[in-house]
Structures are given as C-alpha cells and as structure tokens.
Amino acid sequence: MTQRAKIDTDGSETEAAGPPVVHRPAGLTSAEVAERVARGEVNDVPVRSSRSTTDIVRANVFTRFNAIIGVLWVIMLIVAPIQDSLFGFVIIANTGIGIIQELRAKKTLDGLAVIGEAKPTVRRDGVTAELSTSEIVLGDLIELGPGDKVVVDGEVAEADSLEIDESLLTGEADPVVKKPGDPMMSGSFVVAGGGAFTATKVGREAYAAQLAEEASRFTLVHSELRSGISTILKYVTWMMVPTAIGLIISQLVVKDNDLKNSIARTVGGIVPMIPEGLVLLTSVAFAIGVVRLGRKQCLVQELPAIEGLARVDVVCLDKTGTLTEGGMDVTELRPLNGSDETYVRKVLGALGESDPRPNASLQAIIDAYPDTVEWRCTEALPFSSARKYSGASFSEGDGENSTWLLGAPDVLLKAADPTLKEIDHLNEQGLRVLLLASTPHDLDSPEVATDAHPTALVVLEQRLRPDAADTLAYFAEQNVATKVISGDNAVSVGAVAGKLEMAGAANTVDARTLPTDREEMAKVLDENAIFGRVTPQQKRDMVAALQSHGHTVAMTGDGVNDVLALKDADIGVSMGSGSEATRAVAQIVLLNNSFATLPSVVAEGRRVIGNITRVATLFLTKTVYSVLLAVLVVVSQVEYPFLPRHLTLLSTLTIGVPAFFLALAPNKERAKPNFVRRVMRYAIPGGVIAAAATFTTYLLARHHYSGEGALEAETSAATLTLFLVSMWVLAIIARPYTWWRLTLVATMGGAFLLVLIVPWLQDFFALKLVGTTMPWAAVVIAAAGGLLLELSWHWVSRRFPT
C-alpha cells in the first residue's frame, strides 16, 4: 500500500502515480538536542503523583496538637519523673509510624506512576522514539495519534484530519480541526486523526504547567473522612482551651498544693483531651490502602479516591475494554446488493491500510483482510466517536476513484432501510456489526453520509473478559447499580451484558432518544441499565444527571470518548492501556487493565472508612470524658485525680494499640454518609458515662481514704473504674467478635492486670489498690457504667439511625 496523497480541487493529483515521495521533517538532530539541554530548554516540570518527602514530614510533624503536646512534654520533663513524660515518647513513635507509612505509600505511588506514565513519540534525526515527557526539549517534533495528550505547547507541523479536544482547558466540548501552523495547547488531546507538532514552550512556560502551578496534580478529591475529622478537631480545640485554662487556675491557684505535683496533674488533665492518634491512624489507613492496591497494579493518583469509590452507588461502564477485551475477531463478511466479495475484501484491506493508527475494530479487519492491492489513498477521514464512522478516498489504479465509509449501520443507513432488521438479529446475539458503504460525496462534505450506498456488513465478535461476570455480580451484591454506557448499538451492548448475566440487560435504550432535560434524563437513567449510541458529550450529561439525583458516580473508560465523563464523575477509573488523556484525568488507573480489580478498590475504601469510624469513636470518647472530668474537677474544687502516666497507660491499652489493629482489619460494610454525626452520637454518651462513673468513684474514694497516701489510693480506684468502662467501650467497638478481636480485648485487660499485680510496675505507674472495699466499689460502679453504655448506645442506634 502506498502513502496517501490529496486530490486537488481541479482533479489533478499533487503526486504522480506510484509510491510518492513525501517530505517528512526529520526533527532535531542529536547535536541540537544536546545544545538545548545545555541551555536548560527542557520540559523539566516534575510529574507529581504524590506529595514530596518534605511535605509528608511537615504534615506529620508540624501539627497543631503536636505543638501543644510538645510544649506540655517539655514542661513535664522539667517538673516530673520520666513516667509522667511517656506521652511525649508515644507521640514521637506515632509521628514516626505515620511518616514511614506515607513514605511507603509514596514509593508505591511513584513506582506505579512511572509504569503508567505515557511516553510521547518524538522524532529526532528522522527516527521516532518514545521518550519521557521530561526529556522533551524546545523545538522537538512530537507525533500525535488518537488519544494522545498534548504534553507541551507547540505549533502544528503535520496534520492528517487532526481533531483536538480542548475542553479540559476551554470548557468547549466540540473538537477543533487543526491545520499546519495552528497553535497547540498542552492539556488538550487528540480525538481523531493524527499529525505532529513542534514544541514552542516547554517546562513551566507551557500552558498546562502554569495551571499545575496554581493547582498541583496532587490535589485531594473531596474526602468526607478528612473534612469530618477536621471539623471534629476544630470543636475539640474550642472545648479544650477554656477547659484547660480553668483546670490550670483550679490546680495552681485554688488548691495550694505542691507546685510540681499541681503542674503534673494539670498536664495530666490536658493531654488526654487531644485525639492526637486519630489523624495519624487516618493517614496510616490511607497509606496502607495505597500500598495494598499498589501490589494489585492499581495506581491511586489521589489518596481519598479510595474512600470515594467506597461511597459510590452507581458505576458507569464503557463496554469496550471493560466488559470486553480490547481485541475483536471478524467472524463473517456479508456482501449486500449483489456486491462482489473479492472486491469488498480489497476495499476493506485498503481502508485498513489508510489509517496509521487503527482502533480495535479496524485492527480486526486488517488482520482478516491484509492489503494486497496497489490502491492509493487520496484522502482519509479518521474514526470519531461523535460521528461513529471513518472513511477514505482511493485511486484504484485503473482510472477509477471511489470513496468509502465504514461505521455504525444505524448511523449511515436511513431508519426505514430493510438491512437494519438483518443487523438487529446479529446485534441480539451480542455481535458487533459495521457497515461498508460507498458514497458519491467528498469526505469533507457535510453530506458525506447522506446518500451512502450499503455494500457489505462486517460482523465482529468481541471477546468477553473472563472476570467481568464475577465483578458485575459483586457490585449487584453490594447494592451498587451498574450502567453500561457505550457508543455501540444498544441491542448489541445489551446482548453482551446478558451473556454476563447483568441485571436489566434486556432493557436497552438508544441514547439518541434520550431527553435533553437533565431531570428527565435522570429518570430514564434510574430506570434502565444499558445505553447504546452514546456520544462523548452525552456521557458527560448522563454523569451530571445521575449526580443531580444524589448519586455518587464512578465512571470507567479507556478511550478519548470517555475523558469528559471521567473528569466530571465523582471518581474516574481508567485502564492502564487506555489513552494518555484518560489516564491523566482519572483518579484511579488500573495498570493491569483488569476490571476485576475494582472490587478490591471498593473493599479497601470500605475498610478504611468503616474502621476509621470505629476507632474515631474510641478517640473521641476519651476526649469527651477528659473534658468532662476537667470540668467536674474545676467545679468541685478538688485535685485532678490522674497523673499523665495513668492516662498514658489507659490510652495505650484501651485506644492506641487496639485502634491500630482495628483500623487495619477487614471491613466490608458499605460506606455511609454523615461521618461526624455517626461518630459523635456514640462518643458523647460514652464519654459522659465514663466521666460520671470515674468521678463518682473518685469522690467515694476521697471520703473513704484519709491520711498519708490517700491521693494515690484515690487515683488508683478512679483509674480502675475508668479503665474498666473504657474497656467496655472497646468491647462494644470491637463487635462483631472474631477470635483475634476477643484475643485483642483480653490481651489489653491482661496487660492492665499485670500492672496492678507486679510490684515494680505498681511503683512505676503509681497504681496500687488499697484495701478491698473501694476496689470492689470501683468494679461495681464500672459495671453499672457498662450497662448504661449498652442501653444508651442501643437507644441511640434506634433513635438516630444513619
């Protein structure tokens, strides 16, 4: 097959018959590239798939609560024994764990980003090669094909029916036809045709890089979890400041005690108000989720996207590349209207040769009908998702010229054409059918498809993904609605979905009949699951319509026709083999191209959200009872019962260690909204009951004990009650029980018992139960508190359901 040539308007050809000599710019020479590199004219904008190491360390170390605890820790190191400074070492350990886990996640993200990074094709010294975007220099000649992203600003040097989508930059959805000399903006992408452009701006001077300076790629998608925790911490700060001031005044001024002891007990009251481990565990849970998914070749480009997909209740799927594998096979060729099959095969072979970047359908035709004739392509019209067909004009070598179209039969044929009935039978079997038609019009005529003469049907069989049926079944079990949105014939799409036993596969909708009103469209989308002949703009409109009905929408896709919808969906999921444009806008990239990875992402998100909700209740129950105990102490004008060492021990055994294990445990519970409300509805009654039970024990102990060592005995009794109530909270949070959860709770209880019976641990933590009356009273009060916990949480669950 020879290179194509354009027919001039006067009918003369610009090139002689036979293989034409086409001038192709050779691009820069190696010497010119070296010269530009030396001048620094390199596209040196770093691809950031994750936060930098400096940002990670800063985010974990320089926090508001770390600053507060740091000051209190220094004070305690000066005025009290080392036992009362243990909370500071715990914070250092927690911060270190957080940094290490995020660095692990960063390493995973960066490694996957390199694997998934698209490499533009650059022509140098007359040879094309794939290079990293950071290796492009000023003046480089960069080749483009369908789905390629424009990585730097430039000027078109070659154009072969080149159509560019600039919607991500301008908001205008219609493709722009580019000709030599036209400007190219980085951030746009090719929807049809091909060509090459010369880089005129690289690095931070490029348009997309300037946008990136304002909003880096690592911008977090909306995370209810993060924003909810931020809201909680804001309210905690408001409560903590006045309470801490009152406690300081109470212990240092009203009670004329030993100064160092008063300071120690004041700090002991302030430190537990801070839910310092909550933010840490959230970061750790996200980071470990990234590492886990990374092992499954899933690149999470924005961390809370894990959470977002767990909240999704509608998944929109593109059939090709998602339910079916990318490749296809030609199963039958049906000539129409008495056409000669041998001649039709020649036409198909020539059409295959006319497109240097064939899509999956055309590649199947190329494989079945390799080009063997010396027809010359004089003009080509590449395939576009919007028009649903491609075309080419040929000089057949015997003086005959012809123009052919290949595409969707129901687009190229009139609605009353009897051939459509024959095609419907094929579509009902899940087969894909393309129509080959001749046309008397020029390819650049707007009427090119109006009088198309049907010549043959090309029947293609799509290869179903072996894991697609199980994945669809998983979403059905999890009450996540699936919508198949495809550019193919609706009946054919429905048949494919039916083979996969997808619910609603029999009810298909041709998107050309969809209402344009968003509300009306949303109703149709809610009632149906299979949509065919969907244009790229309609995909975007359908996502918006679903969102208008309160749905959280995930969109999967791999082609340029999916980019707009991926960008607007709550969560965009791209296949690793998809176009560069789709990978650039998606939050999640499945590098192994396996739709079956999605359930793992959903499960990981549910694990993160469900477990953080559990452990947040533990942390905030502690905050509530700490604030209330401080208020009760101030109002009652008594010594604060605890030293920092007591609450460090309690926090470690009832919150810190258990929370770490609970946060990483499996959890398949579907993510629910209103994170703050769901956490606080349990934390508030839990904290109130714990504070009331503890202070009751403390007041009884003050009346029971007297003389030297009375305060230590009172503290020990109060500590016992608080520990038992806190353990009851932990036991409720750990439900439903498994062997390891029961072991975890029992181990924490055993550790506290060890402190009470081992002499040197008694001395170290200043905990020694005196007599039998008060210790048993403490146990009874704790048991009453536990029963109140059960009743109150049962009432809350019924009164304030989520």
UniProtKB/TrEMBL annotation:
Report the principal subcellular site: membrane
Record-linked InterPro entries: ATPase_P-typ_cyto_dom_N, ATPase_P-typ_P_site, ATPase_P-typ_TM_dom_sf, ATPase_P-typ_transduc_dom_A_sf, ATPase_P-type_domA, HAD-like_sf, HAD_sf, P_typ_ATPase
TM ranges? 61-80, 86-103, 235-254, 274-293, 615-635, 647-667, 679-701, 713-733, 740-761, 773-796
The protein's location, in the record's own words, is:
Cell membrane
Query: What name does the UniProt record give this protein?
Result: HAD-IC family P-type ATPase
UniProt key word Lyase: no
P-type ATPase A domain location is 120-214
